[in-house]
What does this fold into?
Amino acid sequence: ENGIDAWLRYAALPCDVRKSASVPARIVALNGTQTSPVYTAGQELHKGIQGILHKDLPVTNTSVNGSSITIGTVNAFASTGHVLPELDLTGDGFWLSIKNDSVQIAGQNERGALYGTFQYLSMLAQGNFTEVTYESNPSAPIRWVNQWDNMDDTGTHGSIERGYAGPSIFFAEGLIVEDLTRVSQYARLMASIGLNGIIVNNVNANVNLLNSTNMAGLGRIADAMRPWGVRMGISLNFDSPRTLGKLTTADPLDQGVIEWWDDIATKLHGHVPDFAGVLVKANSESQPGPLTYNRTLADGANLFARAIKPHGDAIVMFRAFVYDNTINETNWKADRANAAVDFFRDLDGKFDDNVIVQIKYGPIDFQVREPVSPLFAHLEQTGTVIELQVTQEYLGQQCHLVYLPPLWKTILNFDMKVDGQPSLVRDIVSGERFNQKLAGYAAVVNVGTDKSWLGSHLAMSNFYAYGRLAWNPTSDDVAILEDWTRLTFGSDRTIIDTITKMSMESWPAHENYTGNLGIQSLTDITGPHYGPKPQSQDGNGWGQWTRADAKSIGMDRTVWNGTGYSGQYPPEVASMFENIESTPDDLLLWFHHVPYTQQLKSGKTVIQHFYDAHYDGAAVAQTFPEQWKAVKGLVDAERYDEVAFRLEYQAGHALVWRDAINDFYFNMSSIKDEQGRVGNHPWRIEAEDMTLDGYTIIRVDPFETASGFH
Ligand code: BDP
It folds into this structure.
């Protein structure tokens, strides 16, 4: 197996289970239009039951009496005389009733009916034939994927920013690809976990997406995804009126600019009548934006909001990831973490009602651990979506197993205590806490043409879990993982236990060997964000600073003595982070600058904790290849070998991480490891000790990452 069907393999259940299983005699999908999600649901159910149970059920589009699985919207049920109980469904919600020889799947809309069908299929595929009756509503209306796919109009082939699974499934050589088979397969995966929208191009957007050929191409993408209930949107480049439209300005208040965008919106709507919306990265990392024209970020967002307003319910997703990547570390008070709140705090209430602000989960950038972005506490009159990352940009780029839901849950379950009231982040992004109509989730996924979608079979649990958590953020991360494992690799208990154990150990281990105590991912910040490079954290314009020197380490972000960042939280949370005593150890160096000899709550010093944690984390990674061996012969050889290869690599790379970071801070602090391990690696096999073919020697920086440490 190559992974192309991900968790939708519909593998046959064992013969005895198949024989005793009973399902109704036919499928009734109450919509015969081939592009409708209800029609799709009927076809998918047919395919699934054929695979899982080897039964070939007839599919019809008209209601019948007797044994059947009926799929439709609540309205379609009503108009065909089916009596449903009183339901309390919200947008995209569904009702699922499995009783004897009658299964009823009723969606609040067509999409909901499709989601209910996937839910039923997921039960069947896991050999679960229990009778159930329940309704299920998504936590939030917006559950999107962001792809950072480039147009590549210079002849390169579909590159993806921070994508690790081959070229784009959408673009090549400046155009939208002809064959969109993978695009509809992608939409199928998204629909199966309740995701309803996608932005297809990089936030660092190429204006050529708006030329007439590509606008037509966007129409084709939307057509390919529509049967799966997935709506398409695009990222926009703020300067398009100048660069593409040849106007002299892109000033959002200029009449010519306004008309230019109105025209674009009309054309887009012509090609994509159910256009989902636009994503805008402005005035960040050299991208153009309204601040360039002395206008506010709200002026910029509202420009697009007004252009799309006449054409349906599309939205503007405006990114809060606004900061100046040329800030200078010589200014002691400068702190990139402050940027989002500084830029957006005073704009609350100034956005049009079809604008939503997209906020990365932490104030910096998808680090292995960050405190929650304080901006979630400031936008009470503006809808917000949380931005997560499935693509493991800073977390081993899918070469390392890191199961992310435990990280996401520390964020979603965090209580901001706005106005002294319970204010969990998950209740803010569901729209509930501040009573917002528009709210939800977006994750950078970055699948590519590789058959495994993400380049790693195990990384797909993160994609699956993202959809499940966006639907219900209170779902249990182990239960989600077990469902995914059964669907992806089968129900054998050894497989489930092995994958669960490794996955649940993986994020803590990764944090331990890459950057603990809240110091961030000590990776190559100015380069590919891969591998250890602790010294690149300081002295760069990107503001991911550790401020480490010979005696002490950490960013002082307190109000009384530091950059003032901790003061951006509501008072109760602010005072927790303001004081060393009440700051949790795992965020200590995020908020405070302390001597290496500072004692943690555990009683260890900071530096000894560093040493020990790097050893502990790497030791856990060493067990992964061994643990995986338990499933040999229980999963197919192709996927077994591919996973084994990556785990073996991770085990080795974790040692590189361990020794590079430990030796780097040992050299900097001159404080010895109490256990005498650091700087002394008798068991390492260095490249110098091997006979190697086809390698050349290069100098690496810091030298602590090199073989033989020189
Ligand atoms: C960072 C990535 C960069 C993105 C940027 C963003 O390194 O490639 O363009 O975020 O989110 O994580 O805009």
Q: What stands out?
A: Residues 15-136 form a domain with the Chitobiase; domain 2 fold (CATH 3.30.379.10). The longest helix spans residues 637-669. The chain has three domains: 15-136, 142-489, 514-555+593-689. Residues 161-162, 203-204, 281, 321, 365-366, 393 surround beta-D-glucopyranuronic acid (CB under 6 Å).
